[in-house]
# Entry
Amino acid sequence: MPSHHVQNRPVSSTAPTIADAAGLGAALDSIRAEFPALSRQHAGRPYSYLDGPGGTQVPRRTIEAMARYLKRSNANHEGAFPTSEESDAILAEAHAAAADFLGAAGPDDVAFGQNMTTLTFAVSRAIGRTLRAGDEVVVTRLDHDANIAPWLALEEERGVTVRWVGIRDDCTLELADLERALGPRTRVVAVGLASNATGTINPVRRIVEMAHSVGAWTYVDAVHAAPHMPIGVVELDTDFLVCSPYKFFGPHLGLLYGKAERLEQLASYKVRPAPNRPPGKWETGTLPGESLAGLLGTFDYLAWLGREFGGVGENATRREALAAAMRAIRVTERGLALRALQALAGIPGLTLRGLVDPARIDDRVPTFAFTLAGWAPRDVAAEMGRRGIAVWDGDYYACELIRALGLAESGGMVRIGFVHYNEPAEIERLAEALREIATPTAAQPPDRP
# Structure
C-alpha cells in the first residue's frame, strides 16, 4: 500500500486556512485553567499532553464531583436511607446527561459499563444468541479491535461468517467492499465513527443506510469521535453506539446507546434479580457511583463551555449547551489539525498515513500517525517523553490497519492527538523536537536501524 510523505504534498490553493477556524482560541487560557493536570511542568516548560487518543485529562469539576460523592453519598443502590437515595439520584442524572450528550431520546436508551470493550462483548454475545450458522457480520480493517474481536468470536462460537471491508491508500474505507459484503444473510455491520489511529471520519450515516437496506443492524464505535465532534444517535439512525467517557474528559467508564426496541428485545447476560428492562438489564453488578458523579462533572464542564463560548447563552438547556460545546470544539480542532499538517510537512523523513490534503480537513479529527526514517516508533515516543511530550507508539489496538500498512513487524507508528485544551505552541514544540532527532547529526538510538 503506498504511503503518504507529507513533506512532498503541496498545500492546495483551495484548502482552508488556519484563520478559518478560530473557535475557542480566545478562551484557551480559561479552558486550560479548568484542567489541573495542565499545570504540570517538565524542565521548566508545560508538560505537553499529546496522548489524548489513549485518554484525555479531566476538568476540575470532575475531580471535585468524584471526591464529593465519596465524602457524602457513597452507598449502594436502592437503599431506604439518605445516602443511597442521594446516590441513586446521581446515577439517574448521569443517565439523563449521557442521553443529552449523545442526542438520545431518553435516559433508558443509555447504559454504563466498565469500558467500551466490555460493553461490546456483552452486546455481541446477546446478539449472538439470535444468530445461526451462515449468518453474516461485517467488520472493517480500519477499526479498533474492540469492534472486531467480539464479532470474530461469533465466527467460532456460532458459525457466523465474518466479511471484511478494506481500506484505501489514504486510510479511508473501501465502501465498494461494503456493497459487495452486504446481502440477505447480513445481520450486523460494525464500524467506527472515527479511526483511533489515523483520525479518519467514516461516512457512518451512509453506512447505516446501506446496512438497513438489507435489514442489518449497525454497531458504531464512537470512542475516538466523542472528544472531537457532536454525536447525534437519532440522526445517525444507528442501532447501537458505544463510547468511553475517559476519552472525552471524564472518568474511566464505558457508555452504550441502543435503540429502545433493540435493548428491549435482546436477552442480556445478568443476575436474576437485576431489572429486565433497560438500562438496568445491561448494567451488570454495582455501578461505580463516584465515576458517574465525576462524569456529571465532565458534562457540567462541557455545558459551561457551550454556554460561555458556544453561542447559545445562559438559558440553553443542557442538551443544547453540550451540542454547542462540541460544535465549538470541532471548529477549534480544525485549526489545530491544519497547523499540525503544516508543521509535520517540514520534518525530514516523516511519513504520515491517512488524509494529508488540507482540503479534506473536515474528513478527519486531529489525530495523526506517522513513522520517522531511521527510528523505531518506540524510540521516537521515548525521545519525546524525555522532552516532556507524551505521545503513543505501536498499533493502539488498530492491529488490522497496522498489518494492512505493512508495519506490524516494525513497531507500528507514532501517534499524536490534539484536543481542544491543547495549545498551538505545542504543535511547534513537537515539530521542533522531531526536527532535532530527524537531522543527520542527531544521535540515533542504539542498536536500532
